[in-house]
Specification:
Layout lengths: L10 E4 L5 E7 L7 H6 L10 H11 L2 E2 L1 E6 L2 E6 L2 E5 L3 E6 L9 E2 L5 H15 L3 E5 L12 E9 L4 H7 L2 H12 L3 E5 L2 H17 L7 H10 L6 E8 L2 E11 L2 E9 L8 H15 L4 E8 L3 H8 L4 E11 L4 E3 L8 H6 L4 H11 L5
Parallel strand pairs: 7-9, 14-15
Antiparallel strand pairs: 1-2, 2-4, 3-6, 4-5, 5-8, 6-7, 9-16, 10-15, 10-16, 11-12, 12-13, 13-14, 16-17
Helix pairs in contact: 2-7, 5-8, 6-7
Length: 364
């Protein structure tokens, strides 16, 4: 697969191991066969794919400025970056906005550094306030981390029954309790399922002290990803009412547990546990090899423990941010653990939704 439509002037560089490469910015939405091209890389996830890029571009107006390293038109390395502009926070480059983790994809050691250098050049030329990388900091020797999170990955085996036995006993009990309580799970991709999930999402986000994304974002995700076979919504139903739900996103044989929500009034039904279990069974049946449980604050020991109970491996994800004004790498705050979270948790849901619509595009 080759790329033949550059967005910026090509910069020739020397390859880490000899030979010549070109660097250029590309828009994945204008490159035919983008997903097939990146899926060949073992570290590629849904967040590197065209569906996520289209979702963010359509929902928030971000511009794709992915940096590609090419050898005679063939993609050898990639650093996804979107340019976000707002009157509140100015212009910045982020890899990628509202994304848990999106490291550079490289074929060999040393390729990430020229990608980063080219991104720095782009930031200076385009007047970015900062450049932020979400994951992949370990590929850049000498670049300090700005904030850290953890993620959990469940390796999916060939048998869901065998996998079930590896879960903590508390997880197995919760799943059985949900089944005994008459909870069922529907895996769907229709817009009504998106609406049902979103109602739960607004309740949960407000409870946790964060404004919910505008519904337009979820509609864009439905149009760009769910309708195209890149994921599904799992809804836990009890007496014809959704009591829990989650959004699972997929590229190839990898899946991400991106969003989850529940009705806290039905907590005793253990709907969230059954949602994950039914999604795991579906993914195993479809031949998926891993389920990523998403980003977690290091300070949220309860959520970290819950994810480990599913026999998911924990690892650290490091973000890094370079400020062009001060010309140095800067520290970032973990907003999920800040004072503003306690303030938002006190707001009524309708007000939290209004704030989400007003400010979310500025929050990337």
């Amino acid at each position: 697969m080759t790329i033949t439509s550059p967005m910026a002037t090509v910069a020739p560089i020397a390859a880490p191991g000899g030979g010549g490469f070109d660097l250029q910015t590309v828009d994945p939405l204008s490159v035919a066969g983008w997903d097939a091209m990146i899926a060949a890389h073992p570290e590629a996830t849904f967040f590197h794919g065209a569906a996520w890029a289209k979702t963010l571009a359509n929902a928030y107006g971000f511009n794709c400025r992915y940096i590609a390293m090419l050898e005679r038109g063939r993609l050898c390395a990639l650093l996804p970056i979107m340019e976000a502009c707002s009157w509140l926070r100015g212009k910045r480059g982020v890899s990628l906005p509202f994304t848990d983790e999106c490291p550079a994809l490289v074929a060999e050691n040393g390729m990430a550094e020229p990608l980063f250098d080219f991104a720095m050049q782009q930031g200076k030329l385009r007047g970015w306030k900062y450049l932020e990388l979400r994951g992949g900091q370990e590929l850049l020797p000498g670049v300090p981390e700005s904030v850290s999170f953890c993620t959990h990955v469940l390796r999916l085996g060939s048998s869901a029954a065998e996998l079930f036995e590896t879960f903590d006993s508390s997880v197995r009990r919760a799943i059985r309790k949900a089944e005994r309580s008459g909870v069922t799970v529907e895996c769907r991709t229709d817009l009504d399922a998106v609406r049902a999930y979103y109602r739960l999402h607004c309740r949960t986000r407000t409870k946790h002290g964060a404004p919910p994304q505008p519904f337009g974002f979820f509609r864009s995700l439905w149009e760009s990803a769910l309708q195209k076979g890149h994921g599904f919504i799992a809804l836990a139903m009890h007496r014809q009412r959704a009591v829990a739900g989650a959004v699972f996103l997929q590229l190839g044989r990898k899946a991400i547990y991106k969003f989850s929500a529940s009705d806290e009034r039905c907590q005793e039904l253990r709907g969230p546990n059954l949602v994950i279990w039914q999604a795991v069974k579906k993914l195993v049946d479809e031949g998926a090899i891993e389920l990523n449980f998403g980003k977690t604050s290091l300070s949220n020991e309860g959520l970290r423990r819950f994810k480990r109970y599913w026999n998911a491996d924990e690892r650290i994800v490091r973000y890094t941010r370079y400020c062009f004004e001060s010309q140095k790498f800067v520290k970032m705050a973990d907003l999920a653990a800040g004072t503003q979270a306690r303030v938002f948790a006190l707001l009524p849901v309708f007000l939290s939704r209004w704030i989400g619509r007003a400010v979310y595009a500025h929050m990337s």
